[in-house]
Amino acid sequence: MKFEAVTIKDIAKALGLSTSTISRALRDSHEISAETKQLVLECAEKLNYKPNPIALSLKEKRSRSIGVVVCEIANSFFSQVINGIESIAYDRGYNVIVSQSHESYDREVVDLQFLSSRSVDGLIISLATETTDLSHIKALHDRGMPIVLFDRITEEINTHKVIVDNYRGAYDATEHLIKNGYKRIAALAGSEFLSITSERLAGYNDALKAHGLEYSKEYVQHCYYGGMIFSEVEEAVNKLLTLKQKPDAILTTSDKLTTNCLRTVKRRGISIPDELGMIGFSNYDIAELVDPPLTVIRQPAEEMGKAATDLLLQLVESKRPVKEFEKRVLTPELQVRESAIKR
């Protein structure tokens, strides 16, 4: 049997009133008495009546929905960002539609085509690893679609952006390793095209220089898909651990790189932190439960989602064209545990 939603006709039939009376009562019109309004509202609740969102969107010229595109929901950082997005959106009367690019440019294009065809009021986007051509986003932006970029951003599009201080997070982590006696510190990074990769490696590099340690290109391994493919991470870690002068510590620059690096190291039977120190960008709560507990750079992911949504709704609800844009830079936290302290 086909599902049919309750309409104002059903309420009118149940109460023996006209549909126009029901409509005005639901709109809290002054033309309808308080008694009748109360009667209509009670009947609407009993019948589980919900306003038709399509009809409302046509009337208001707004869908009351926003689209979100991330690389992967099964990533603690992005799932926490989405929690932040939803907490603000739902409080403001907006629904959230989430799509995953899985680091694919083609999927990102399809995701954005789908969301824009559903007339979302705005978009919150974190770029995919494969995205170097931004024409699909620029086209939407040029047509007036409100867009906020977060985490993986580009300076080619003039709009609001929300990031963490990636440079500071990596600098502090590298410096912590150095102060705890590690001298040959490697870095496991994502795609060179991503903004977060260049910013985090810059912090890593500058921390080495500040403490008189030489940057070595062979100590930096890039995983194009950022840890989504375990074999790619395993191969990169094995390259580092089979160098003639192998590293005594590794900095990993994203959630999936951190967990898959740890998995590879454990499989090889390497002792952390004595044989190999380790610090990773990670929002996984399990970091403090592994043995030994993992030192991490934790990003304020939920706060990032809230900030991105707040900025997007400013664009959506503005009565005038917005010409000045903001880049919000949030502060990550170095959570020190045993994985980066020699015993």
Question: What is the secondary structure topology, with strand pairs?
Answer:
Layout: H1 8-15, H2 19-26, H3 34-46, H4 53-60, E1 65-70, H5 76-91, E2 95-100, H6 105-117, E3 122-125, H7 135-142, E4 147-150, E5 160-164, H8 166-179, E6 185-189, H9 195-210, E7 220-222, H10 230-241, E8 249-252, H11 255-267, E9 277-281, E10 295-298, H12 301-317, E11 327-330, E12 333-335
Helix pairs in contact: 1-2, 1-3, 5-12, 8-9, 10-11
Structure description:
It holds the Pfam family LacI. InterPro entries: HTH_LacI, Lambda_DNA-bd_dom_sf, Peripla_BP/Lac1_sug-bd_dom, Peripla_BP_I. Keywords: DNA-binding, Transcription, Transcription regulation. With 343 residues, the chain is α/β, with parallel strands linked by helices. It folds into three domains: 8-51, 434 Repressor (Amino-terminal Domain); 64-164 and 301-331, Rossmann fold, CATH 3.40.50.2300; 166-299 and 334-340, Rossmann fold, CATH 3.40.50.2300. Helices cover 43% and strands 15% of the residues. It contains twelve helices and twelve strands. The chain has a six-stranded parallel β-sheet with strand order 2-1-3-4-5-11, with helices on both faces. It has a six-stranded mixed β-sheet with strand order 7-6-8-9-10-12, with helices on both faces. Strand 8 (249-252), helix 11 and strand 9 (277-281) form a beta-alpha-beta unit. Helix 1 (8-15) crosses helix 2 (19-26). 40% of the residues are buried. The model has no long low-confidence stretch (mean pLDDT 92).
